[in-house]
Amino acid sequence: MIVLASKSASRQAMLTSAGVEFEAVPADLDERALEAELVGASPAQVAIALSEAKALAVSAKQPGRLVLGSDSLVEVEGRRFDKPASREDAAEHLRHFSGRTMKLHSAAALSRDGDVVFRHGALARLQVRHLSETFITQYLDTEWPEVSYCVGVFRIEALGPQLFERITGDQFTVLGMPLLEVLGALRFEGELPT
Asked: Which CATH architecture has domain 2-188?
């Protein structure tokens, strides 16, 4: 049984659906402070670094166990977005995304006994349709506060598809973790049958 260094319902659901046994032990990290140390890093590099930091933080307290850390971040026209801090912040994010392409960087890392044994990042491109103020208000009336936990202010498994005209990239990346690559790494590490 692996350890998932996350409280993300989406990541837990992905692992459960794929038949991976896990225990969820969220990492206690100041992600914004870690990001501040990564000045000049690309969004893809930041997502991988945060995944590694989460896996390593939990691995330090789980000797001998394989720990999975994962992270996602959104970039639109060079600006990075974190999870919205408030409903007003979410509305501002949606206004900025309107009519633009959202780049969603999802990454994962595996750690055992303080060593990173796997890291991988993936990219999905999501073309956001033009969003009216009426739509944004109605969308947040239904989806808030659930989307407050979601980078990009959407849950693809809920009303999120209504934001987009087109999505390029695999569904697992959009859900927040490059699952196929993680499953391959878990087989390599002996946690899943080959």
From this structure: Alpha-Beta Complex (3.90)
